[in-house]
């Protein structure tokens, strides 16, 4: 088989599809909702969820019977964070920016249409202007006027908080 078209394991794909059903708008989902989203038989989804649950990647909310991502993701996220040199490399640049402009500097990572706060260098006193929409967070600190902020986060549906 060619490297251009690697062989993918269907059961692994389906398990990942289940995990990817969850997002900031769908934090908890019922078995039926997952089954319908993926167009898979409910018994197939049930078996995959049981396997993911056994490894703590999916948890069931006992109050409403819906499923949510498990705590194992936090453990793995910490491993990812520890393995990236980006925080160390970026922090020195943020520190320089903070010293030069006397403002808090933030480092964000953009991946899969989401922005993740990675690290920051604070000025002595900080206030911030922030916007959040569907898991995307945009932030700036004064004295940057709001009119410039919209150039950073140009979505018309963003709300200032």
List the secondary-structure elements in sequence, H or E. HHHEEHHEEEEHE
- Looking across the biggest beta sheet, what order are the strands in? 6-5-7
Helix content: 40-55%
Kindly state the mean pLDDT as a whole number? 77
The amount of beta strand, in percent, is 15-25%
Distance between the termini: 52 Å
Poorly predicted runs: 129-134, 140-161
- The beta-strand count equals 7
What's the story with the biggest beta sheet?
Answer: 3 strands, antiparallel
Q: Assign an overall shape.
A: elongated
> Structural class of the secondary structure composition?
alpha+beta
Any idea what the radius of gyration is?
A: 20 Å
- How many domains, in number, for the residues? 2
Number of helices: 6
What is the strand and helix layout of this fold?
Layout: H1 10-20, H2 31-38, H3 42-54, E1 58-60, E2 67-69, H4 72-83, H5 86-101, E3 105-111, E4 114-121, E5 129-133, E6 136-140, H6 146-152, E7 159-160
Antiparallel strand pairs: 1-2, 3-4, 5-6, 5-7
Helix pairs in contact: 1-3, 2-3
Pfam families: HTH_IclR
Domain HTH iclR-type: 9-71
Protein name: HTH iclR-type domain-containing protein
Task: Provide an overview of this structure.
There is one protein chain. The protein is an alpha+beta fold and 161 residues long. It has two domains: 10-75, Arc Repressor Mutant, subunit A (Orthogonal Bundle); 84-160, no CATH class. 42% of the residues lie in helices and 20% in strands. The chain contains six helices and seven strands; from the N terminus they run αααββααββββαβ. α1 crosses α3 (42-54) and α2 packs across α3.
């Amino acid at each position: 088989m060619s490297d251009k078209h690697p062989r993918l394991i269907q059961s692994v794909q389906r398990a990942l599809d289940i995990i990817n059903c969850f997002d900031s708008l769908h934090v908890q989902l019922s078995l039926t909702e997952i089954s319908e989203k993926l167009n898979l038989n409910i018994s197939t989804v049930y078996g995959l969820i049981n396997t993911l649950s056994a490894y703590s990647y999916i948890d069931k909310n006992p109050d409403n019977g819906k499923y949510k991502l498990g705590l194992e993701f936090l453990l793995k996220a910490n491993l990812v964070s520890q393995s990236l040199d980006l925080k160390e490399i970026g922090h020195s640049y943020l520190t320089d920016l903070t010293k030069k402009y006397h403002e808090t500097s933030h480092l964000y990572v953009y991946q899969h249409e989401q922005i993740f706060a990675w690290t920051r260098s604070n000025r002595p006193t900080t206030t911030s202007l922030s916007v959040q929409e569907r898991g995307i967070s945009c932030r700036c600190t004064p004295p940057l006027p709001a009119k410039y902020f919209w150039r950073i986060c140009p979505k018309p549906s963003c709300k200032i908080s």
